[in-house]
């Protein structure tokens, strides 16, 4: 009796705790979703959402009939997946390496410095990168020492994608490492001490203690990253690309931007956006189920 | 805090005892140090570059002569900023937005995450809510319906518009939920026996245990608020309401040179001032650079204080 | 033709009367100005609709583009400045600015959002695709009747100077959906700018044909007058394009339109031949040949190797590294002021480029460059008020003191210039310099050629080195008042070709706006075209790609669109 009363009081507390966040979610995330209806309409702003003509899946058909769109989707996928993987591997490796640095002052200095690019917006970084990689930029200067011919790197479609991926990883690795460092500090030092006493080598203790200790964080971030799998980085690509590299560099978001706010094709832009969301959702659900069924691990 | 530091020391000490004498270790340490130095330099360069540009002569900056050192030292740009009241107005809006936004976010998340960290047996709506949250992270109606909604709420030119309109920060929520789930159950259970209710458990036990992850989230959130510019543009009726990044963004003018009208032509001349832009960027970075070291210490030494581990 | 237009304008000006002239030059109040005063009295009278004062205050809500570099004095704002005061005082029009955004991308995003959310202010100035989108969504006021009643004779004469093109551009389903901004004709005409001082140094003649350009480029590249940085021919930067198309208002900056038309090629335009057949100029053999030639130039290093990726070609030109570039009349003066600040001896000269049989073909831009649109739900008075604002701007523009409060703060600034304004001004300036006329003669001529009085009054002090019959050089100009220098340089050097050289053929596009199919398919085709052309020129694709582009273009909707354009004709 007293237990059940206690339980209902706990329940009530839970509901109250949830409420603020739920309201935020409802009013600012869910309500604007009514706009998804545009993807199925020939949206006419004069008539509004209620009276615009419905065209069923017409927008989707048109979207996929364009030679552009297949290319854009492929680009988006390649760039985003590469970023997804490298943005886990590189910061993780970095965090592990940094953890190996003995000198605390040096360690702290490095850590303080590598997060810096994260704070710079792509507008600024892009102009710096374009200069460094331009014909007379320092990269070509460096390469000429090895007898490599100079190029305008960001206007070569062969390299553009890799440069986008690379520069993003470079910009974010320090900051992403913050999460892994936080997870690393969560591993009890006694474990390492015990391993050391057992005569475990460095690599071995990383394999047996460090990685399992942060596996949860890695999996979590990867799965959440899947939700972003079609977010290949609008700000970045938008500031770096040019028609010369559309073939490898144009991504869904830049394309949607040109469609929606420049070419004022509101419905088509929404359609492409919705397509992106659906794919992302499928990926997240799948990976969640795999993690749950195979490893019995509930990601969220 | 002190305890944390000791553990850290013990950690590196322990390693050294075992392998420091081997040759391989020394090669590794040297290579590792070199890698760290190169990475650090590459990360410092853009900041250095912005600084160099901002204190270089306008003509030198525009001609692209600045690469590694300032060319033709001049503080004109900073002087010009000092006379720009709109810049400081925007700076103020951004500070307000960041502080307010971070506080609100942290507060909401601390509470929201707690019931969600419970298993379904203890809070049966947990899974449904979680899936709604995930759904909201991935789906959106797009810019236009979002703008219409915010307008209907009357959030144009309002600080609360800048704080709330981005929606719930789902990513950080999930981070926090998972952290809560990793906190040993015994802690809570012991408190229940002592007669504590869920509020007490949350704020007296769970939150103090979560300082590292909260610090991480504070950092993510504040950087996000500070750097956001698009909402600032869409939700403001003019530059006197812009947050700083939006204000800076409009400085970096991209003129389509095929579509110039006469008045744009007349202004072309004045448009480009890379040195001034760089100075504004540099100033805009300062608050983040100041705040980070304070939060940083939690990442490094903030081990779950006093928590029972597994 | 031009003469006739001018005489009509003059007649109308006389009839309407010009207070403006009287305000600007009060000393000169002879008989025509007395008439002006009478005219003004009529204007105050409610009978004179174009300048009527409302009995009660009419509030007009607008969206305004501002430039980050222009500021108002402390205490003034976009809806509280000398212009809004003037409108309130003289016409009882109260301007309320709903929002502002920096001109360019920011402003256009705001406009797009306004249209999408159906929250247009009473009036705002937009570009063509936004006007069409709003018109198609039935969001715009049909101003046809009110415009014919309330537009001033000056406005109408400017509109008429375009042979009906201006009206055509703003007519949608028989409704007039906007007041167009009418641009000077020469805005769409490209000239070649070249460093005459470099030519002189190597005893080269001014270029006349593409072969000449090639030879000069070769010499520039060998001799490197600007050191290792020397670039013979500048190309478009990352915001630029190799040539303008029918949707662009003006010509390109550092694109190659002139090179194309020297080969009788007009890429980006819809062309009609004698039989009425419509083709798209980008697909033609002559376009292919010119693209191949450009690729050849690029390969030889004549054209900037970083074309298409540079942040700003204008900065490159300003730095003094460039020997030649193509651009509009204003580029040599307004566009590249820093070039002269950095090197006062940079003697840029503008020339036309002829076909191999010495003809000058000109690719003409669209007549209208911007549109003042009005919300369908605005009241009749509000629409009248906005038309009156345009009238007042054209009539009184030159009477304001713009030193503290620049004219960009005029609410919904709608530019109106007679098509031949620059050429007319050029000829009058030469007359003044030759002593054939006096600056004072122009004081009364303000309105349609609104800047003529100013221009003629400063031309002598700005060009002290003028000698009749001698080609002006940069040393003949005084840079003391840099703004005047830029304007005079643009007019007397940059517009010299179009003012003095006979044109063999003016080529217009059959349409300057999108057809229905284009609305959905054009952006795809356009980006395909831009990409292919840039890649061929920069040697990243072979010229054979051109042929597969033509096939692909036709298959992916180009053929349908061509049919549509033909139907419209």
What does this structure look like?
The complex is a heterotrimer of chains A (300), B (310) and C (569). In chain A, 75% of the residues lie in helices and 1% in strands. Chain A is mainly α and 300 residues long. Chain A has two domains: 56 residues, no CATH class; 235 residues, MetI-like (MetI-like fold). Chain A has a two-stranded antiparallel sheet. The two termini of chain B are 21 Å apart. Chain C has three domains: 175 residues, Periplasmic binding protein-like II (D-Maltodextrin-Binding Protein, domain 2), CATH 3.40.190.10; 182 residues, Periplasmic binding protein-like II (D-Maltodextrin-Binding Protein, domain 2, 3-Layer(aba) Sandwich), CATH 3.40.190.10; 83 residues, no CATH class. The two termini of chain C are 25 Å apart. Chain C has 23 helices and 15 strands. Chain C is of the alpha/beta class. Chains in contact: A-B, A-C, B-C. The interface between A and C is large, with 34 and 38 residues.
Task: Give a nutshell description of this structure.
The complex is a heterotrimer of chains A (about 300), B (about 300) and C (about 575). Chain A folds into two domains: about 1-55, no CATH class; about 60-295, MetI-like fold, CATH 1.10.3720.
């Amino acid at each position: 009796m007293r237990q059940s009363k206690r339980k209902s009081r706990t329940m009530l507390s839970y509901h109250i705790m949830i409420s603020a966040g739920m309201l935020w979610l409802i009013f600012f995330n869910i309500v604007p979703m009514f706009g998804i209806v545009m993807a199925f309409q020939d949206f006419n702003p004069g008539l509004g959402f209620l009276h615009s003509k419905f065209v069923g899946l017409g927008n989707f058909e048109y979207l996929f009939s364009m030679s552009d769109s297949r290319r854009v989707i492929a680009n988006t996928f390649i760039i985003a997946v590469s970023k997804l993987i490298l943005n886990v591997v590189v910061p993780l490796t970095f965090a592990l390496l940094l953890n190996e640095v003995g000198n605390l002052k040096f360690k702290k200095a490095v850590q303080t410095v590598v997060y810096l690019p994260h704070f710079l917006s792509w507008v600024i970084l892009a102009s710096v990168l374009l200069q460094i990689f331009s014909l007379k930029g320092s990269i070509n200067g460096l390469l000429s020492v090895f007898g490599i011919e100079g190029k305008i790197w960001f206007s070569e479609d062969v390299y553009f994608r890799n440069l986008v991926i690379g520069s993003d990883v470079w910009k974010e690795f320090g900051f992403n490492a913050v999460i892994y460092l936080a997870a690393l500090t969560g591993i009890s030092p006694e474990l390492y001490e015990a391993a050391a006493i057992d005569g475990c080598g460095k690599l071995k203790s990383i394999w047996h203690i460090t990685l399992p200790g942060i596996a949860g964080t890695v999996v979590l971030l990867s799965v959440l990253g899947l939700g972003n799998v079609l977010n290949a980085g609008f700000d970045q690509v938008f500031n770096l690309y040019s028609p010369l590299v559309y073939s490898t560099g144009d991504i869904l978001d830049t394309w949607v931007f040109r469609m929606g706010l420049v070419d004022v094709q509101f419905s088509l832009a929404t359609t492409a956006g919705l397509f992106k969301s659906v794919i992302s959702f499928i990926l997240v659900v799948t990976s969640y189920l795999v993690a749950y069924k195979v490893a019995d691990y509930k990601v969220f | 805090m002190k305890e944390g530091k000791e553990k850290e020391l013990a950690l590196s000490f322990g390693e050294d005892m075992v392998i420091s004498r081997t040759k391989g270790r020394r090669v590794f340490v040297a290579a590792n140090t070199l890698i760290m130095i190169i990475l650090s330099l590459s990360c410092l360069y853009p900041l250095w570059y912005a600084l160099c540009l901002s204190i270089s002569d306008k003509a030198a900056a525009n001609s692209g002569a600045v690469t590694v050192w300032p060319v033709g030292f001049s503080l004109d740009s900073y002087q010009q900023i000092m006379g720009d009241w709109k810049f400081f107005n925007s700076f103020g809006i951004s500070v307000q937005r960041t502080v307010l936004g971070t506080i609100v976010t942290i507060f909401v998340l601390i509470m929201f995450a707690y019931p969600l960290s419970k298993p379904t047996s203890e809070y049966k709506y947990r899974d449904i809510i979680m899936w709604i949250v995930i759904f909201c992270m991935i789906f959106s109606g797009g810019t236009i319906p979002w703008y219409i909604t915010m307008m209907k709420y009357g959030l144009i030119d309002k600080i609360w518009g800048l704080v709330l309109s981005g929606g719930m920060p789902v990513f950080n929520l999930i981070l926090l939920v998972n952290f809560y789930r990793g906190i040993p159950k015994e802690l809570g259970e012991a408190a229940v026996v002592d007669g504590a209710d869920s509020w007490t458990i949350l704020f007296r036990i769970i939150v103090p245990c979560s300082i590292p992850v909260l610090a991480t989230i504070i950092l993510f959130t504040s950087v996000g608020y500070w750097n956001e510019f698009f909402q600032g543009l869409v939700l403001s009726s003019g530059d006197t309401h812009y947050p700083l990044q939006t204000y800076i963004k409009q400085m970096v003018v991209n003129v389509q040179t095929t579509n110039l009208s006469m008045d744009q032509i007349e202004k072309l001349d004045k448009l480009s001032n890379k040195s001034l832009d760089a100075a504004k960027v540099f100033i805009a970075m300062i608050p983040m650079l100041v705040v980070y070291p304070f939060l940083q210490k939690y990442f490094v030494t903030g081990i779950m204080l006093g928590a029972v581990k597994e | 033709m031009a003469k006739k237009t001018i005489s009509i304008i003059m007649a109308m000006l006389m009839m309407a009367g010009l207070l403006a002239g009287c305000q600007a030059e009060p000393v000169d109040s002879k008989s025509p100005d007395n008439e002006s005063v009478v005219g003004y009295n009529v204007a105050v009278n409610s009978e004179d609709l174009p300048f009527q004062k409302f009995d009660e205050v009419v509030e007009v809500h607008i969206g305004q583009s501002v430039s980050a570099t222009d500021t108002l004095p402390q205490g003034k704002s976009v809806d509280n400045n000398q212009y809004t005061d003037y409108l309130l005082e003289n016409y009882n029009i109260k301007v309320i600015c709903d929002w502002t955004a920096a001109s360019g991308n920011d402003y256009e995003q705001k406009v797009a959002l306004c249209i999408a959310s159906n929250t247009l202010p009473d009036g705002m100035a937009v570009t063509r695709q936004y006007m069409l989108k709003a018109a198609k969504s039935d969001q715009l006021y049909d101003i046809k009747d009110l415009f014919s009643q309330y537009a001033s004779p000056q406005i109408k004469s400017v509109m008429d100077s375009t042979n009906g093109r201006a009206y055509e551009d703003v007519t949608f389903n028989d409704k007039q959906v906007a007041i167009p901004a009418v641009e000077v004709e020469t805005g769409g005409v490209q000239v070649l700018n070249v460093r005459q001082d470099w030519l002189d140094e190597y005893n080269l003649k001014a270029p006349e044909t593409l072969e000449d350009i090639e030879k000069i480029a070769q010499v520039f590249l060998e001799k490197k007058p600007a050191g290792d940085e020397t670039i013979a021919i500048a190309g478009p930067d990352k915001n630029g394009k190799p040539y303008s198309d029918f949707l662009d208002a003006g010509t390109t900056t550092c694109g190659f339109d002139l090179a194309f038309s020297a080969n009788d090629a007009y890429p980006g335009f819809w062309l009609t031949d004698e039989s009425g057949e419509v083709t798209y100029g980008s697909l033609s053999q002559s376009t292919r040949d010119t693209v191949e030639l450009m690729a050849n130039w690029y390969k030889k290093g004549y054209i900037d190797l970083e074309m298409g990726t540079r942040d700003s070609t204008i900065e490159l030109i300003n730095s003094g590294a460039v020997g030649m570039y193509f651009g509009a009349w204003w580029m040599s003066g307004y566009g590249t002021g820093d070039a002269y600040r950095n090197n006062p001896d940079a003697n840029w000269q503008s020339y036309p480029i002829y076909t191999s049989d010495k003809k000058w073909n000109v690719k003409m831009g669209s007549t209208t460059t911007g549109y003042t649109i009005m919300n369908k739900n605005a009241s009749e008075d509000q629409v009248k008020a906005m038309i009156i604002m345009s009238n007042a701007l054209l009539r009184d523009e030159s009477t304001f003191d713009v030193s503290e409060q620049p004219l960009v703060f005029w609410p919904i600034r709608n530019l109106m210039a007679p098509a031949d304004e620059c050429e007319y001004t050029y000829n009058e300036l030469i007359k003044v310099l030759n002593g054939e006329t006096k600056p004072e003669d122009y004081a009364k001529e303000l309105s349609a050629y609104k800047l003529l009085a100013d221009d003629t009054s400063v031309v002598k002090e700005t060009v002290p080195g003028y000698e009749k019959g001698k080609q002006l050089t940069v040393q003949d100009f005084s840079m003391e008042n840099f703004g005047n220098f830029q304007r005079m340089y643009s007019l007397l050097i940059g517009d010299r070709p179009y003012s003095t050289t006979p044109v063999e053929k003016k080529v217009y596009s059959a349409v300057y706006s999108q057809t229905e199919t284009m609305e959905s398919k054009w952006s795809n085709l356009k980006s395909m075209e831009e990409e292919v052309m840039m890649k061929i020129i920069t040697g990243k694709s072979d010229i054979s790609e051109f042929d597969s582009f033509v096939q692909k273009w036709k298959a992916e909707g180009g053929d349908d669109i061509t049919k549509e354009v033909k139907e419209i004709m």
